[in-house]
């Protein structure tokens, strides 16, 4: 396997910009499924025809899940004294074959909770991969090699292929709304942020999620192909590195789709950062994406309690 494909195969990074702290920890190492005492099983059932059971591995000082057959949602709630009433469903990425649960899930959720935002990490069901690690790495390399080709499925074709994941996202929104009072969440102020494949799921939930209706969305290093923006499309935040080997050389039609529909959109194109920078601390300015996202949320009133936001205070 070539070095670049080996990096792509992680579903985490796609160029040699790994933080130095993780440079000696780049091998995939199987680990026991971690305890997830706060995880709530969603009501979407078990993935059909999925004989390979869930497993986890570590790499780059982070942890990943794969072969997820039952979806869960894990709450990260803010200090009640700081709670704003806003909430975010967090969708990690990994090509719908693995999930970057720490770098693009738990760490993002903790950072949101520190800002007073209730965060919920969605461990959605995944396409099956080989049980063994070497075969899994090879399958990921083949997938990402195909993803880098110029001809990719259209956004709507991709959406048609991820029905189970959209169902999981809808169930996540429904669960948060059903327990909104308990979790101090305003049902009208629930957004969604996704990374790579999780960004694709975020867009799919926005345009095909029926009752999900995110109040605002974040698309972090997802594909930016043009798609029809709903007339009531939510405000959208987009972050991408220009040297992203998967999506950095494509067009930015999605941005223009939102602009053509006269819907709010903010786009950060970082010079460097690769694919999968997430919450890793790097020397590249892409590390600042979360602070920019938080400022954008604040601009739209989501870091203030609902009453203060409505009065402009």
UniProtKB/TrEMBL annotation:
- Which Gene3D superfamilies does the record match to this protein? alpha/beta hydrolase
Query: What molecular function does GO assign, one term?
Result: hydrolase activity
Q: What keywords does the record list, in alphabetical order?
A: Hydrolase, Signal
What are the boundaries of the signal sequence?
1-23
Dienelactone hydrolase domain location, by residue?
A: 141-283
Protein origin, superkingdom = Bacteria
Which InterPro entries did the record assign?
A: AB_hydrolase_fold (IPR029058), Dienelactn_hydro (IPR002925), GDXG_lipolytic_enzyme (IPR050300)
Q: What's the protein name? A: Acetyl esterase/lipase
